[in-house]
């Protein structure tokens, strides 16, 4: 079975804060399109909550082994797009759009697959995070296998840029959340408990590692799931 870097991280450390925020934004029992479903960890969690999930992934082996229905291939492939369900309740793009050459066009297409009032849940790495700002000041951007400095990222989004991306696809942002990360000096100094959460709430553009947005298709009143 093919195993990606992200699948190995989940196996070793469990779901990330951003992944848990994404899951919390999807209603139980929804019909869901999980774009870039990787090994199917999120899809399996949603299926356990009564959701009907269709995944999209370049290599569907691992997700299918978890019982997920997967359309194999690139989301930008016309043949893949034609095979996707329409009028779904929710679309999930968890750490996916930054890997695509034209995320605006891709998200615009995906928004068209939602039923009126359906939701798209998008998580994106925050290019305004303090570690990225520090790297720029030092004049060198690291190249890593995963995370903010993932070498396979093709596009970068700040908090404002993430919101513009979602709104540009014709979606109305009804909720914005943030995944925290270690603060400066936290690896060397013991900081008060809860300071990380307080910092990301006060200055998300600087301290949020990832931005998680929920966008609604068409006129709709936000419900409890969109918080």
Describe, in plain words, how this protein is organized in 3D.
The protein has a seven-stranded mixed beta sheet, with helices on both faces. 37% of the residues are buried. It is globular. The chain has one domain (5-217): 3-Layer(aba) Sandwich (Rossmann fold). It is of the alpha/beta class and 227 residues long. Helix 3 (41-48) links the parallel strand 1 (31-35) and strand 2. The chain has helices at residues 5-13, 17-24, 41-48, 61-65, 78-82, 103-111, 130-138, 159-168, 195-202, 204-207; strands at residues 31-35, 52-57, 69-72, 88-94, 114-125, 171-179, 210-217. It has ten helices and seven strands.
Note poorly predicted spans. Answer: 220-227
Percent range for helical residues? 25-40%
Which class in CATH terms?
Answer: Alpha Beta
Count of domain modules: 1
Basic shape: globular
Oligomer: single chain
Mean pLDDT: 89
CATH topology: Rossmann fold
Number of helices: 10
Placed side by side, the strands forming the largest sheet appear as 3-2-1-4-5-7-6
How far the N terminus sits from the C terminus, by CA atoms, comes to 38 Å
Strand content is 15-25%
Name given to the CATH homologous superfamily: Vaccinia Virus protein VP39
**Gyration radius, to the nearest Å?**
17 Å
Q: Quickly give the structural class.
A: alpha/beta
Number of strands: 7
State the order of secondary-structure elements, H for helix, E for strand: HHEHEHEHEHEHHEHHE
For the largest beta-sheet, the strand count, sense and barrel status come to: 7 strands, mixed
CATH architecture: 3-Layer(aba) Sandwich
């Amino acid at each position: 079975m093919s195993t990606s870097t992200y699948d190995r991280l989940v196996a070793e450390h469990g779901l990330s804060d951003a992944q848990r925020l994404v899951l919390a934004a999807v209603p139980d029992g929804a019909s869901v399109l999980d774009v870039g479903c990787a090994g199917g960890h999120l899809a399996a969690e949603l299926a356990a909550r009564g959701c009907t999930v269709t995944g999209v992934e370049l290599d569907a082996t691992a997700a299918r082994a978890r019982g997920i229905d997967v359309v194999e291939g690139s989301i930008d492939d016309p043949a893949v797009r034609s095979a996707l369900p329409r009028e779904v309740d929710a679309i999930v793009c968890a750490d996916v759009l930054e890997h695509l050459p034209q995320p605006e066009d891709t998200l615009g297409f995906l928004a068209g697959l939602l039923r009126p009032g359906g939701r798209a849940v998008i998580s994106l790495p925050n290019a305004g995070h303090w570690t990225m700002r520090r790297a720029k000041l030092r004049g060198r951007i690291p190249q890593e296998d995963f995370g903010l400095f993932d070498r396979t990222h093709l596009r970068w989004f700040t908090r404002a840029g993430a919101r513009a991306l979602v709104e540009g696809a014709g979606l109305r942002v009804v909720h914005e959340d943030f995944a925290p990360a270690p603060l400066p000096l936290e690896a060397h100094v013991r900081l008060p408990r809860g300071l990380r959460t307080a910092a990301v709430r006060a200055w998300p553009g600087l301290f949020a590692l990832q931005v998680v947005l929920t966008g609604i298709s068409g006129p709709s009143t936000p419900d409890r799931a969109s918080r």
